[in-house]
Amino acid sequence: MGLRWCSSFAALFLLFPAAGMVSSPARGQEIPLERCDSLPVMEVIVGGQPMRFLVDTAATSFLNLKSFSEGKARDVRVTSWSGTLATSAREVTLEEVEIGSTKFVGLKLPAVDLSAVGSACGKKIDGILGVDLLGKLGATIDLKKQTVHVTTASDERASQLAAEMHREMHHCLEAFNNSDEKSFGDCLDPKIVLFSLDTELYGREQVIGYFRDRYFHQKPAARLEIRESAFHPIGEAVWYEYEFTIEFARGLLRGRGMAMCRRSEGFWRMVSMHHSVMELEPLPAAK
Predict the structure, then answer these.
(1) Does an H or E element contain 218, and which?
(2) Which of 44, 63, 211, 253 has its CA 20 to 30 A from that of 149?
(3) Global pTM?
(4) pLDDT for residue 13
């Protein structure tokens, strides 16, 4: 029922010092994966030119010496699925690298000979996108959908807003379970709208009365549990989906719906609730 707003949303290691990173707001979050034989690869823009990088979560990031021959020779340690080994490589500085909507500036990576990888899959591999850069991107790999989801400024804002709501509004669930009408009322916008299968309510007093008549001040006390998901920030408001259960005198009520909360005058409050599906298990079945 959208009272506790959200649940909260790896350690990284870099082969060379971190480069600057700039994230552009919500330009395509999903990057398609391609296949080089059975290996997952994706397009990476280096200096304005598209290149093919192998995606490897068990390796650090490095470049193909055949694609990036200029650089200063240096002894480095390279990590791959087979372990970590010391080798001689060139340190290459890439002025600009674009991965989806994220841009790296002055990125330093080692370059080694990746000819064997390219020969194995039948295409030239220009580099390996490893766990260090994937972590910095906040990347999630979906092999079933063949996509890489890269965290953008929009994603980060949604996560920050959800965490803020959780901190400020966690007491609302407790207020419901304690039948604390005053504290619960403080969680509701004065002009809140609530829709269920058989009810349309407008305003804080009507909504408090709805919960009072159905769930508050019962023995044993009604108990609400909720699971929120799919947060969508719009300015200072957030839409989200939820599933809930309420165990009370009549049985166990299960439902789901959508809700919106908004920050105004420094406080987060519920503005809209819409229960789209509700099912009641009568008391004997619930027990």
Answers:
(1) none
(2) 63
(3) 0.53
(4) 24
**In whole angstroms, how far apart are CA 71 and each of 2, 68, 78, 110, 147?**
55, 8, 17, 9, 32
**Contact of 47 with 95, CB cutoff 8 Å:** yes
**What residues pair up with 274 in beta bridges, in sequence order?**
195, 258
- Residue 116 makes CB contacts below 8 A (sequence gap 6+) with none
Q: Which H or E element spans position 78?
A: strand 72-80
Q: How far apart are CA 99 and CA 169, in angstroms?
A: 36
Contact 190, 203 (CB under 8 A): yes
For residues 202 and 275, give the distance between their C-alpha atoms in angstroms, rounded to a whole number.
15
In the sheet that holds 147-149, the strands lie side by side as 30-32, 147-149, 140-142
245 closest CA partner among 279, 201, 270, 221: 279
Residues in CB range of 170: below 8 A, 6 or more apart: 4, 5
* 186-220: pLDDT as tens digits: 999 999 999 988 889 999 999 999 999 999 999 88
Q: What are the structural domains of the chain?
A: 27-151 (2.40.70.10), 154-286 (3.10.450.50)
